[in-house]
Design brief:
By secondary structure, the protein is α+β, with helices and mostly antiparallel strands. The chain has helices at about 15, 30-40, 85-100, 130-150; strands spanning about 5-10, 20-30, 45, 50-55, 55-60, 65, 80-85, 100-110, 115-125. It has one domain (about 5-125): Beta Barrel (Small Protein B, Chain: A), CATH 2.40.280. The longest helix is centred in the last third of the chain and has 24 residues, at about 130-150.
Length: about 150
């Protein structure tokens, strides 16, 4: 069986709510039963965010459903999970997040060579007018695609 990069969960709302300035891939430290749940796609990234605390990176409020067959070995579904990043990456992210209005948002969870990874986005929150502009642009692209489809 070949190892492929399989995206398990995607935070679709993140690109609408935030302007993504940069992305970083980090390893995700999981307990045994959590890996099975992640492989089954039982991950919700909607409310998730990452922080830098005392030189370490952590992922908060990402919901990984308990694995049914693990019963007593299951852990808290929204616990704080450690992220695996290099020392320099953590330092750089810490500096950037300290800037006004920037945060770390999980964009997707995937497997690479059998290891669970999370793609973090260094993001700035959008205001209402920015969100309206995004909706307007999406509608225009959809309308243009419809017109080209009709002409064929």
């Amino acid at each position: 069986m070949a190892m492929t990069d399989a995206t398990v969960a995607r935070n679709r709302k993140a690109r609408f709510e935030y302007e993504i300035l940069d992305t970083v891939e980090a390893g995700l430290v999981l307990a045994g039963p959590e890996v099975k749940s992640v492989r089954a796609g039982k991950v919700n990234l909607q409310e998730g965010y990452a922080t830098i605390e005392r030189g370490e990176a952590f992922l908060h409020d990402v919901h990984i459903s308990p694995y049914d067959a693990a019963n007593r070995w299951n852990v808290d579904s929204t616990r704080k999970r450690k992220l695996l990043l290099g020392k320099d990456e953590i330092r750089d992210l810490g500096r950037r997040v300290a800037e006004k209005g920037l945060t770390l948002v999980p964009l997707d969870v995937h497997f690479r060579k059998g290891f669970a990874k999370v793609t973090l986005g260094v993001a700035r929150g959008k205001g209402h007018s920015d969100k309206r502009e995004t909706i307007r642009r999406r509608e225009m692209e959809r309308e243009a695609a419809r017109e080209t489809g009709r002409r064929r």
